[in-house]
C-alpha cells in the first residue's frame, strides 16, 4: 500500500514537473528570462530530489537553466552549471556521446563570451575532432564545430588557422547545402571577415558582394539579414577610401573592429552554432 502511495506521489510530481518545464520553455522562447528561470529552478530541484543528481532529465534541466543564465548574461552562473553537466555526461555517457559534445560546445560558447579563448579553443578542438570521426567531414554538425572553432581563432587573431577552417567550411557547405543556403552565406561572411582582418580587401569585397546579392535575391531587399549585409558592404566600401592611407606595416595591425563595426553586426549575429547556441537535449 505504501509503495503504491509513493508511486502515485512520484507520478504526480513528474506530471507537474512537466507542466513547469513546458511553461518555462514558453517564457524562454518569448525572452521572459526571469519567469523562465523561476520555473527552471523548481524543475531542476524537483528532478534532483526525485530522480537524483545524475539522471539524464536532471542534467537536461540543469542545462536549460544554464541556457537561461546565458541569455541573461550571467556567465558565472551559466558556466558553473555547464561544467557540472559536461563532467557528469562525460562520466555517464562517455566523452564522445552527442549530448556530451553538445555540453562541451555550450560551455565553450560561455567561455568565449567571457573572453576565455584558450579554454574555449581546447573544448572546440575536441568537439570538432570527435564529430569528424563519428559523423564525417561534411556532416552539418561537423561543419558547425569547425565554424565555431574558426571564430575562436579569429577572436584570438589566429588568422591563418581561422582562414583554413573557414575555407573548408565554405566549400563543403556550398557542396552539401547549395550556394544560396543561409549557412553557406554565413560561412562566406565569416571568411570575408578573416580576409578583411588580414588586409586582403579585394578578396573580402568579392565575398561581401556575393553574400549581399544572394541574400537580397533569396530573402528580399527589406529582410533584416539583407539590410545588415548591404550596410556591411557599404561600410566596407567606405573603409576602402581610408585603408589606402594606412601604410602596409600599419595595415597588418588593423582589425575588423577598427573600421568595420557593421560587418561584425552582419555576420557574427548569424554565426555557426549548435541549434540556438545552447542545445539542451
TrEMBL record:
Classification via InterPro entries: NLR-like (IPR053137), TPR-like_helical_dom_sf (IPR011990)
Coiled coil: none
Domain of life: Eukaryota
Pfam families linked: TPR_10, TPR_12
Gene3D superfamilies hit by this protein: Tetratricopeptide repeat domain (1.25.40.10)
PANTHER family given in the database record: AAA+ ATPASE DOMAIN-CONTAINING PROTEIN-RELATED, ATP/GTP-BINDING PROTEIN-RELATED
Protein name: Tetratricopeptide repeat-domain-containing protein
Amino acid at each position: 500500500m505504501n509503495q503504491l502511495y509513493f508511486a502515485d506521489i512520484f507520478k504526480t510530481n513528474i506530471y507537474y514537473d512537466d507542466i513547469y518545464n513546458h511553461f518555462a520553455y514558453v517564457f524562454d522562447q518569448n525572452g521572459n528570462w526571469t519567469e523562465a528561470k523561476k520555473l527552471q529552478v523548481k524543475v531542476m530541484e524537483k528532478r534532483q530530489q526525485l530522480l537524483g543528481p545524475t539522471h539524464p532529465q536532471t542534467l537536461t534541466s540543469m542545462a536549460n537553466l544554464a541556457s537561461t543564465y546565458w541569455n541573461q548574461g550571467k556567465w558565472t552562473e551559466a558556466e558553473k552549471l555547464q561544467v557540472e553537466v559536461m563532467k557528469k555526461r562525460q562520466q555517464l555517457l562517455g566523452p564522445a556521446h552527442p549530448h556530451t559534445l553538445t555540453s562541451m560546445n555550450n560551455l565553450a560558447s560561455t567561455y568565449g563570451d567571457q573572453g576565455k579563448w584558450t579554454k574555449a579553443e581546447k573544448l572546440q578542438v575536441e568537439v570538432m575532432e570527435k564529430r569528424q570521426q563519428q559523423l564525417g567531414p561534411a556532416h552539418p554538425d561537423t561543419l558547425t564545430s569547425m565554424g565555431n572553432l574558426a571564430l575562436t581563432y579569429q577572436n584570438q587573431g589566429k588568422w591563418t588557422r581561422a582562414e583554413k577552417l573557414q575555407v573548408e567550411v565554405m566549400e563543403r557547405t556550398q557542396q552539401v547545402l547549395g550556394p544560396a543556403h543561409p549557412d553557406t552565406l554565413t560561412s562566406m561572411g565569416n571568411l570575408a571577415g578573416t580576409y578583411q582582418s588580414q588586409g586582403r580587401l579585394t578578396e573580402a569585397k568579392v565575398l561581401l558582394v556575393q553574400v549581399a546579392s544572394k541574400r537580397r535575391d533569396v530573402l528580399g531587399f527589406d529582410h533584416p539579414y539583407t539590410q545588415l549585409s548591404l550596410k556591411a558592404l557599404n561600410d566596407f566600401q567606405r573603409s576602402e577610401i581610408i585603408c589606402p592611407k594606412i601604410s602596409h606595416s600599419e595595415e597588418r595591425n588593423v582589425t575588423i573592429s577598427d573600421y568595420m563595426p557593421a560587418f561584425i553586426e552582419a555576420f557574427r549575429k548569424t554565426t555557426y552554432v549548435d541549434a540556438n547556441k545552447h542545445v539542451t537535449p
